[in-house]
Amino acid sequence: MSTSTTPTACISDHPPVTANNITTRCPKPTVTYSWRKLGNVDATQFETALRQSELFSSPASTTDGFAKQLERSPSRSRWLSTEAVPTKRERRRLKRRWQSTRDEHDRMNYRRACRTANELINASRREYFRKRLLECNNQPHDKRWRV
Asked: What are the DSSP E strand ranges found in 3-136?
């Protein structure tokens, strides 16, 4: 009778414990940034409009007053109505909330705000260009195309 022994790598009277942990990692939300292309802005026209605004000629002495002046300052989106601005702000707030919680109820609120904001934005854009085209009604067609 012969016996053979196999050497063990550890010095213990217990066998090693092994386990397979099956875990999934939640993916991190992707953060995207957007900004305006400053190359598309006519700098001289913007500077002229800014210098003619009350923001430049008579700036407010309080922070709140200055913030109100900034809301009325010249910008690229002159067609955006005053009703659409707070709606866009609310949409951004609800988007940040949904992205942080990933709750379905928050997503539904965000999507509802998206639809409302988009309707107001499109309506204000449509109304702005309709007025601009009516102003150019008596002018040559090449000037109407510049609207």
From this structure: none
DSSP per-residue letters across 20-73: -----PPPPPPP------GGGS-HHHHHHHHHHSHHHHS--SSHHHHHHHHHTS
Whether pLDDT at 6 is above 70:
no
Residues contacting residue 83 through CB under 8 Å, at least 6 positions apart? 120, 124
Are 58 and 99 part of one and the same domain?
no
Per-residue pLDDT of 64-79, as tens digits, reads 888 887 776 666 567 8
Give the mean pLDDT of 49-60. Answer: 81
Looking at every residue in the chain, the average pLDDT score rounds to 81
Q: For residue 41, which of 70, 71, 75 has the smallest C-alpha distance?
A: 75
Print the domain residue range for 123: 79-147
